[in-house]
Recover the amino acids of this structure.
């Protein structure tokens, strides 16, 4: 009995390792109004199955952003979409983020249809800024570890193009 318990535990740990967390860089370019474009490196770390995880970035001015991403799926519940995507956060958090991102999920059905198998992220800066990101995935079932590209906008007006 004890031997089968140990075997089952070993198989479980191996399975978690195979489907488990992954991480990687996101390289991109930041365009800030009135300034020359500069390179930017972000990072991501997936959760257990890759459908969600965390992201982080440091802007050229030193502001540090961190937050969560999720891969949009047809069966996604309203509670899994961040309030910024629904336009439900305070207006001052929006700043310069345009309507293609801010409030894009007011119509949940249309949002899910348009963004299905794409990743969306909401990051908060340590100086009060907000960053929203949208990524097209090369292999949606693999999450971010499958590669992709997209864009982000910050409430201060920066626009970011990114690839991973």
């Amino acid at each position: 009995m004890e031997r089968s318990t140990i075997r089952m535990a070993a198989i479980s740990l191996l399975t978690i390792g195979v489907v488990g967390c992954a991480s990687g860089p996101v390289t991109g370019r930041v365009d800030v109004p009135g300034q020359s474009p500069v390179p930017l490196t972000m990072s991501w770390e997936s959760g257990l199955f890759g459908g969600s995880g965390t992201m982080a970035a440091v802007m050229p001015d030193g502001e540090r952003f961190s937050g969560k991403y999720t891969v949009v799926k047809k069966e996604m519940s309203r509670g899994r979409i961040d309030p910024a995507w629904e336009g439900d956060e305070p207006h001052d958090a929006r700043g310069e983020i345009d309507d293609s991102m801010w409030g894009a999920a007011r119509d949940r059905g249309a949002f899910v249809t348009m963004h299905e198998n794409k990743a969306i992220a909401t990051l908060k800066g340590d100086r009060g800024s907000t960053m929203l990101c949208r990524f097209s995935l090369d292999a949606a079932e693999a999450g971010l570890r499958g590669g992709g590209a997209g864009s982000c906008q910050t409430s201060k007006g920066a626009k970011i193009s990114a690839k991973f």
Remarks:
- The first helix runs from residue 2 to 19.
- Strands lie at 23-31, 38-46, 52-58, 64-71, 118-125, 130-137, 148-154, 159-163.
- The CA atoms of residues 95 and 155 lie 4 Å apart.
- Confidence is low (pLDDT under 50) at residues 9-19.
